[in-house]
Specification:
The protein is mainly alpha-helical and 227 residues long. It has ten helices and no strands. The longest helix is centred in the N-terminal third of the chain and has 47 residues, at 25-71.
């Protein structure tokens, strides 16, 4: 008897389900179509996004190729002047869509900074390197470009700014970044130039202690021996 009741309940549930599906057939179809369209839209969106990213990397690759081509040309030639104009134009367009706080934008900006270094345009090399450094303060591009900005600043006659940036690299990143020995060495060198010999000696000693196998440590050791 109990089994018959269970069958009866199952039949009633099935009937209610059939009734619901029958009366709401159009609504259910519409919902399913909407879901399929959403899923299809997501698929298309992902594809378009991936294609967009791929295209941007391809553009960066072309810019890098143009950079290497530019470096192989005679700077006094007309061909170099034309290639430089095209290179700068491509960079300008590229960074409009890829800001300096992105990897792509930073990479393009670094290439332009390298060209400015080659041209000994220290002012622009400083500005470009500093822009990348500040935008990537929390990743490996930060200390590298702070160092580049410091080099450009010193070559531009601004030793105080160079000292600030070398000091910043050590204070902010310490032993964790590959540029630390270079930052310490140049910090000590500029302190010595400023007449702060005791500070310079202390920094040189720190350098030889923290990075005994570094090239800069070897130079610092020579300085300490002759002090």
């Amino acid at each position: 008897m109990k089994k018959d009741k269970e069958i009866s309940r199952a039949e009633k549930l099935a009937q209610k389900t059939d009734d619901f599906l029958g009366s709401n057939r159009k609504l259910i179809i519409i919902i399913l179509v909407v879901i399929l369209l959403i899923l299809a839209g997501i698929g298309v969106g992902v594809t378009v996004h991936n294609r967009s990213v791929s295209n941007r990397y391809e553009e960066l690759y072309n810019i890098e190729e143009n950079y290497y081509n530019l470096m192989s040309l005679d700077e006094a030639s007309e061909e170099y002047a034309a290639a430089l104009t095209d290179f700068e134009s491509d960079i300008d367009v590229f960074v409009q869509d890829n800001s300096v706080d992105t990897y792509l934008g930073a990479s393009a900006t670094i290439l332009l900074a390298e060209v400015r270094f080659m041209q000994e345009n220290w002012s622009e090399a400083y500005e470009l390197s500093l822009a990348v450094a500040e935008a990537h303060d929390n990743d490996y591009l930060g200390p590298l470009n702070y160092i580049n900005a410091a080099v450009a600043a010193e070559n531009n006659g601004n030793a105080d700014e160079a000292l600030r940036l070398y000091t910043l690299v050590w204070d902010n990143y310490g032993v964790t970044c590959p540029e630390a020995p270079q930052a310490l060495f140049n910090q000590a060198r500029l302190e010595y130039t400023n007449g702060n010999t005791d500070i310079a000696r202390s920094i040189f000693e720190q350098l030889t202690s923290e990075f005994p196998n570094s090239y800069y440590s070897a130079i610092a050791q020579s300085w300490l021996l002759s002090y």
